[in-house]
Amino acid sequence: MSTDTTGSAPARPLVMSDVAARAGVSHQTVSRVVNGHPNVAPVTRSRVQRAIEELGYRPNAAARALVTGSSRTIGLVTMNVNQYGPAQTMIGLEQAARVAGYSLSVAIVEGAGVESIAEAVDRFVAQSVDAVVVHTADLEAVAALGVLDPPVPLVAVQMGGEELGPTVTVVQEAGARLVVDHLLGLGHTTVHHLSGPEHSMESRRRVEGWRDALAEAGAPPGELWHGDWWPSSGHEVGIEVAARIRGGQPITAVFAGNDQMALGLMVALHEQGLSVPGDVSVVGFDDVPEAPYFSPPLTTVQQDFSELGRRGVQLVLARLAGQHCEADQVQPRLLVRRSTGAPPR
Amino acid sequence: MSTDTTGSAPARPLVMSDVAARAGVSHQTVSRVVNGHPNVAPVTRSRVQRAIEELGYRPNAAARALVTGSSRTIGLVTMNVNQYGPAQTMIGLEQAARVAGYSLSVAIVEGAGVESIAEAVDRFVAQSVDAVVVHTADLEAVAALGVLDPPVPLVAVQMGGEELGPTVTVVQEAGARLVVDHLLGLGHTTVHHLSGPEHSMESRRRVEGWRDALAEAGAPPGELWHGDWWPSSGHEVGIEVAARIRGGQPITAVFAGNDQMALGLMVALHEQGLSVPGDVSVVGFDDVPEAPYFSPPLTTVQQDFSELGRRGVQLVLARLAGQHCEADQVQPRLLVRRSTGAPPR
DNA sequence: GACGGACATGTTAGCGCTAACAACAGTGGT
DNA sequence: ACCACTGTTGTTAGCGCTAACATGTCCGTC
Q1: Does residue A26 lie within 7 Å of nucleic acid chain C, judged by its CB?
Q2: What is the pLDDT of residues A139-149, one digit of tens each?
């Protein structure tokens, strides 16, 4: 058990020279011990360490930051954290940062507008963070980053583009290809796509991968709809799809840009009397924890979100160490469950 | 190909006296302008402000923190942010903090063990945060907080207990009562409950509310199962429930501790050939965005998570201002959808 | 016209820490 | 013996900022 201090001692500021006095050394020696400098006699070191523990001393981060110019803090600019993917990425990031001895300051922006991102980065700079990680897939946001030129390393995570130098991304195209190949392999003539918002780079990349894979396989191009990542937009498109099928259009496979839209889509299809995968096969993207419990369990593309966060931190550390660093990529994986099958005959 | 320095000045540290020199005043006058002190001549003020803008000066937060003893940062200790509720609460918190001029430092702990929480709080203290918000409902965590005595205000959010002074909570019991009354009103004899983990206070409060409401209505006590918040645990219990029904036990209404477990439960029920709400009515808790798209759309209790976060910040600010502050409560609301109905006859 | 007071500024002294240097030991080689 | 050298400690000087005090300056007032 960590015994704080004897009895009470609510909040008397405890500084380095208090420790020094107790250990009978100079405050500088304490500093050396705290920072793990080599040239301290073992005896002295342990004496100081004991004093630190007995007193419960914690070095003052502000003072240290002032003199070293580094706050050992990483700023994260993110959005949509109430969605599974972004949240999971943030978790990975926080943990990797913590392990590396950094703490994480978070700004959750709303609109992804150039201004809000710029402002968030600016605040982080003023706050003396050592680096900024921007987690977004929004095109506007990408533009914002291009303009910005912060005095600290800035790395981007999970956006499609490479223009900004160091970037970690999931290879979205590859994910989309996996889906198309799976469905075509099942016998579907083509695959239609319900993508995310147009300004999302992730979404755009998936659209590209979908289109290319279709073209390469010699399949006719499929229909493209745009949603907003939420179930309700999937639901709307589901109604539309059902209407077209009734109108005679042969829609047998839909690839949704994320699991939530896939959910809305499947529900709408059921409501309209269609079966999944009997009439229409549906694939999602993300593999949220609920996906195996949808009706039917959803075939989807798994992305390792926490890995994304971890690599983001790696990239940051590399840049802080002045190392050469390149864009880094994480490969997605297809999980086949029961929402896909052969097309109706 | 890291494009760090694009043409302009890379990162020459810009300090207050630079601004002072440019504006032809002393650095202290600049400080006064920056901090909005009253006694500065309007002419001087605008001259300084212009100099600040032209130079793009940003005060150094570390130096300011060192001298004022305040970093204008709030530390948030949280967990399970990949779930909708906690994430949403964090969003509310971050926004409220930002509006109040604070930035948010985040620690995501895993196990809710006493140690990890204590360590997180400790790190925040070393980091000179002005206050710590702990967002958890875990009993162990509550114990951890009781032991801790950080030198900064600590407020708890969303835990059932009041023992720790300032706390913001959703009135979980009230939510549970809403559910029980609704189901009893529909004609069910009693209501069974699939709760969250035993060490969760939220969960415990819901159990109490459920039990009390049942007792007060003179209904026989229902069965109690424990899950882990995730769909898979709901699924397991669903299989169990189906087995009991087949065995003759009259289970007609189950109240799940959250929406995800309700989802798993309903899926298992369907798999076992039972209808929701035809054979069994199911109610969730939280109102995640997917809930209206479950099959059937889920009757659930809506909690205003972001409000929780916002009030957490209010509480923090009040304490920092030395104001008297009390425990604060947010009322939940029942959303009736299609997963509940009259019991089978 | 001398004087107290409100205002506007500048000057000084630290906040708690680390970096640089200075001051000493103790070594071993010659 | 001496000296150059390594290893250990203490001393000093800031980092960039704000609080407290010191210094003006311009009023109105009697």
Answers
A1: no
A2: 777 776 777 77
